[in-house]
Amino acid sequence: MAQRKWLICQSEALKDAERGIRFQAEWRHTPVPAFVVRFQGKVHGYINECQHVPVELDFNEGDFFDLSGQYLICATHGAYYSPDTGLCRGGPCKGRRLTKLHLIEEAGAVYFLPDESKLHE
Ligand code: FES
């Protein structure tokens, strides 16, 4: 069976440690809000849900990075996460992780792989 892959955006739309892009992913057969960012050259995707309270991280759409560009930050209470692993490094949910999604970047575009992402549960 062919691997499903969903186009999220063109590669050039994601600049390192700048605005992310929201998209609709699928998790356990359910549509969920998600986002993708670029950090240190690589793309990383997560379900857009803080591990403290189930709210989306970005109050202003696409604003996932803190001012330093080193962490993803929750706009509600300031939890901050490593962009490459999703591990919460500080704040009320320190030690928990964002749910990471499987992405690929090829031929100048970024794709979500819904079937591969199930393997990360
Ligand atoms: S809801 Fe994200 S830190 Fe509280």
TrEMBL record:
Rieske domain segment(s): 6-112
Listed InterPro entries: Rieske_2Fe-2S, Rieske_2Fe-2S_sf
Organism: Parachitinimonas caeni
Descriptive protein name: Rieske 2Fe-2S domain-containing protein
Highest taxon of the lineage: Bacteria
Keyword Signal in annotation: no
Keyword set, alphabetical order: 2Fe-2S, Iron, Iron-sulfur, Metal-binding
Keyword Metal-binding: yes
